[in-house]
Amino acid sequence: MDKPTPLFAHKKYWAKRFGTAPFLPMSRAEMATLGWDACDIILVTGDAYIDHPSFGMALIGRMLEAQGYRVGILSQPDWRSADPFRALGKPTLYFGVTAGNMDSMVNRYTADRKIRSDDAYTAHAEPNKRPDRAVTVYAQRCREAFSGVPVIIGSIEASLRRIAHYDYWSDTVRRSVLADSKADLLIFGNAERALLEVTHRLAQGEPIHDIRDLRGTAFMASRDWLPAEAWIEVHSTDLDTPGAIDRHTDPYAMAASAPAAQTPEGTAPIRIIPRAERLNAKQTLRERTVIRLPDYDQVKANPVLYAHASRVFHLESNPGNARAMRQAHGERDVWLNPPPIPLSTPEMDAVYDLPYARAPHPSYGHAKIPAWEMIRFSINIMRGCFGGCTFCSITEHEGRIIQSRSEDSVIKEIEAIRDKTPGFTGVISDLGGPTANMYRMACKSQKIENACRRLSCVYPDICENLNTDHTPLINMYRRARALPGVKKVLISSGLRYDLAVRSPEYVKELVQHHVGGYLKIAPEHTEAGPLSKMMKPGMGAYERFKQMFEAATLAAGKKQYLIPYFIAAHPGTTDEDMLNLALWLKKHEFRLDQVQTFLPTPMALATTMYHTERNPLKKVLGGKAEKLEVVREGRRRRLHKAFLRYHDAENWPILREALKSMGRSELIGNGKKHLIPDWQPEGTGQGGRRSPAATLRSPAQKPGVRKPTPSAQKPSARPATNLRTKSTPLHKPRRP
Question: pTM for the full model?
Answer without folding.
Answer: 0.88
